[in-house]
Amino acid sequence: MSASKLYLAVVGVGGVGTAFLSQLASLPFKLRPTLVFVSRSSKQLYTPSYDAVSVSDLQASTSKLLSLFELVNYLSSAPGKAILVDNTSNQDVANAYPSFLRKGISVVTPNKKAFSGTLQLWNDIFDAVESSDGQALVYHESSVGAGLPVISTLKDLVSTGDQVTRIEGVFSGTMSFLFNSFAPADGTGDGSKWSEIVAKAKEAGFTEPDPRDDLNGMDVARKLTILARLAGLKVQGPDSFPVQSLIPKELESAKSSDEFMQRLPEFDGEMEGYKDEAAKAGKVVRYVGSVDVAAGKVKVGLELVEKGTPIASLRGSDNLICFYTKRYGANPLVIQGAGAGGEVTAMGVTADLIKVVERLR
Amino acid sequence: MSASKLYLAVVGVGGVGTAFLSQLASLPFKLRPTLVFVSRSSKQLYTPSYDAVSVSDLQASTSKLLSLFELVNYLSSAPGKAILVDNTSNQDVANAYPSFLRKGISVVTPNKKAFSGTLQLWNDIFDAVESSDGQALVYHESSVGAGLPVISTLKDLVSTGDQVTRIEGVFSGTMSFLFNSFAPADGTGDGSKWSEIVAKAKEAGFTEPDPRDDLNGMDVARKLTILARLAGLKVQGPDSFPVQSLIPKELESAKSSDEFMQRLPEFDGEMEGYKDEAAKAGKVVRYVGSVDVAAGKVKVGLELVEKGTPIASLRGSDNLICFYTKRYGANPLVIQGAGAGGEVTAMGVTADLIKVVERLR
């Protein structure tokens, strides 16, 4: 059966969404569903008769704005199976996944919010998938490590009966870049202070517009929540385990990103302290996340890491994820590479979409 | 739909086959096809009415032996879709894949022979898949790197439109073990000679029964053939590009594995030479395979590798595969871990089977 009898809605056309639409356009016809709905924050484009639409017409669209509830109805009335691709990081859209899935609409997304939100939302999503008997699918590879095969690998390990004992790694491209620059394992650093490195990364666009959104560790905590749940732990949410924020207590009250950046140098001594402590032990300081499955413990924060280990040797803004399992024994299964960026994030979304199309058509 | 309306034939119950059957037995009912045929070299077990069979009855079976041609007919007459799991490394079974696929029977296998044989066989297999319109599938994750997500990752990169420029790595657990022991990057080696390390590895079961089957490089060449073809190169076969054999010319005529092992020490000086040459340049010697996609070149052999790189730092018998692509830029997507062993090879097979069941049911 041709994929053109499958109907596609794409929510969000920012960096990831734009790259995704471009990858979608290059798919062979038989893998490409018909795009019938596309939206950005204040614009939507669709027709009542489910005609194919083009994102280039979105800006000029006069389509009446549908609520999420109305979008569920619109897609569930399509003349074939429908797929929602959510390229936002919006919590409201995430909260609506169970409604889409219960109506037989599959969901593909890099949005972490649904899978790292409440355990209730997680259960609602996977209960809906389960009871759909293969009609409503959910794929979210890019919610951890962008296009790196992290979610799919963990799912394969679990579904084939391996025992995952520990997951450990560097889960933020921004944190990776900051620490690889601040304390490179090969000693090639230029001695820049922590605040200087954060400022440089901000200017280069390697951090969120407000760097505090990276430094608070919540992005990493969300990813660890997702992995811990896939490994079988009933984690309540990203604030239910220890997460070390790199926003100094005294700066939590800073009113703006600018004020924060201005005062950050006051705390360079503290970060230098970590670096020196690590150096004395022949180690380097890194921002690490880990899931100890047996002990049921998740944690995120600074760790002193042995030089020569894969985590210490990371370069650029690479992510690195180690799966320790019963079958793999002492040496983990390791996945490493760029874990952020529009193109590689979109790749995970497009690859997921292909899998959904292959299963539904 | 329940997977019990899918019919499964398992050929080969050696190390991988036994581990696979044990993983299969642990799958949830809805993912577990009905096992209707199981065989080892001289025994087969099946019933004319496609009843479920158990491998524990194989030894005592009196079923009349079916030829491959007869097996194709048996499975294509099953009252539902059928799947062949080939856990052998047999060329004849591999040659029959197109016959199975053309009759709508899906194939899941760790057997490298089909995908690294003639280009004609490769084309016959994928033409049959293509023209089945999603009814006959072929999955072969464990044909490279056992259960590591190598094939699936490369397919995702290609199918989403990334340009793979170079694939490089250590593709043999045996070669990895031999060189990590012979010339460890951290200088912890015990000074053992090459022939001593090969002998120790043979005793420990880390090599094929005849170590020449590892040392000739053909296993690595077969894997590179598969990856190069998936990346788009029309490679004629594993003997169509340079493969450096570690069997000394003078020993090619050795009549037995014993004679070979007895005379191998005569060539310890040569291997020591490579090691010293590398050490002088601050490097280590490793057995590396690479595909230069742009230049259309594949090669396999000894290389002097910079210390501190992932390849030089490998431990134990780990494999390591680097994908350099346009999207991933300067730092490759890297996958690392055990690339051999019954349990992890079977894991790739079982994970593939689950994907086939999810698509067919």
From TrEMBL, chains A, B:
User: Gene3D superfamilies given for it?
Assistant: Dihydrodipicolinate Reductase, domain 2, NAD(P)-binding Rossmann-like Domain
Which positions are annotated as binding NADP(+)? 12-17
Residue ranges of the TM segments: 6-25
Q: Which residues bind NADPH?
A: 88, 112
Names of required cofactors: a metal cation
Annotated positions binding L-homoserine: 208
- Please state the pathway this protein functions in, per its UniProt record: Amino-acid biosynthesis; L-methionine biosynthesis via de novo pathway; L-homoserine from L-aspartate: step 3/3; Amino-acid biosynthesis; L-threonine biosynthesis; L-threonine from L-aspartate: step 3/5
SUPFAM superfamilies per UniProt: Glyceraldehyde-3-phosphate dehydrogenase-like, C-terminal domain (SSF55347), NAD(P)-binding Rossmann-fold domains (SSF51735)
Enumerate the InterPro entries for this protein: Asp/hSer_DH_NAD-bd (IPR005106), Bifunc_Aspkin/hSer_DH (IPR011147), HDH_cat (IPR001342), HDH_CS (IPR019811), HDH_short (IPR022697), NAD(P)-bd_dom_sf (IPR036291)
The protein's matches in Pfam families, at most eight in alphabetical order, are given as: Homoserine_dh, NAD_binding_3
Where is the secretion signal located?
A: none
- What does the record list as GO biological process? homoserine biosynthetic process; methionine biosynthetic process; threonine biosynthetic process
- Which residues constitute the catalytic centre? 223
Residues in Aspartate/homoserine dehydrogenase NAD-binding domain copies: 12-135
State a single Gene Ontology molecular function. Answer: homoserine dehydrogenase activity
EC no. given is: 1.1.1.3
**What keywords are annotated for this sequence in UniProt?**
Amino-acid biosynthesis, Membrane, Methionine biosynthesis, NADP, Oxidoreductase, Threonine biosynthesis, Transmembrane, Transmembrane helix
Homoserine dehydrogenase catalytic domain segment(s)? 149-354
Q: What is the role of the protein in this entry? A: Catalyzes the conversion of L-aspartate-beta-semialdehyde (L-Asa) to L-homoserine (L-Hse), the third step in the biosynthesis of amino acids that derive from aspartate (the aspartate family of amino acids), including methioinine and threonine, the latter of which is a precursor to isoleucine; production of homoserine leads to a branch-point in the pathway as it can either be O-phosphorylated for processing to threonine, or O-acylated for processing to methionine.
For this chain, the family text in UniProt reads: Belongs to the homoserine dehydrogenase family.
Q: Any idea what this protein is called?
A: Homoserine dehydrogenase
Native species: Exophiala dermatitidis (Black yeast-like fungus)
